[in-house]
Specification:
The chain has a single domain, classed as P-loop containing nucleotide triphosphate hydrolases (Rossmann fold, 3-Layer(aba) Sandwich), CATH 3.40.50. It is α/β, with parallel strands linked by helices.
């Protein structure tokens, strides 16, 4: 494999967990763009959003994609909103084979309730499901546009999802 496998999808669809397991299965290095940003900025994603705002964070996502341009044979997990930028969508296609981890709003909410990760875009939301539906609806066309293929994650185990990805990669 000469290119990378890039995982995209909404928050709490399992991109990081699936990416780590996929990297072990294929014996490839794993990179998480959110972790790269946190290491560069020396702040958590929540702190970046709180102190610098979403636009600043989106700019950092683009910079990280630039750094990954020449990488090969990696599994790359991205932030849920990375596809909003047209520049990022072009970069994602250049960087590797893009896999969209598709999920329903209900499944996203279930995963969020299980997670300890703070999601800045859902902060102070009385009805997070409404915000999830709105954001997912806004982003779906971008996920579909950039993806080489998609894998449904609702009610699937991590192993089932990883096996589905590997099957669709035609390695």
């Amino acid at each position: 494999m000469k290119k990378n496998i890039v995982l995209i999808g909404f928050m709490a669809t399992g991109k990081t967990a699936i990416g780590k397991l996929l990297s072990k299965s294929l014996n490839l290095d794993f990179i998480d763009t959110d972790i790269m940003i946190e290491e560069i900025e020396k702040k958590t994603i929540k702190e970046i959003f709180d102190s610098n705002g979403e636009l600043y964070f989106r700019k950092k996502e683009s910079e990280v994609l630039d750094k990954l341009q020449d990488s090969k044979n990696k599994i790359i997990s991205t932030g849920g909103g990375i596809v909003v930028s047209e520049y990022n969508r072009r970069k994602l296609r250049d960087i590797g084979k893009v896999v969209y981890l598709e999920s329903s709003p209900k499944w996203v909410l279930i995963n969020l309730q299980r997670s300890k990760t703070v999601r800045p875009l859902l902060k102070n939301e009385e009805k997070p499901i409404d915000k999830i539906k709105k954001l997912l609806n806004e982003r779906k066309k971008y996920y579909d546009d950039v993806a080489d293929f998609k894998v449904e994650v609702d009610e699937k185990t991590l192993d089932e999802i990883v096996n589905n990805i590997i099957y669709n990669l035609d390695l």
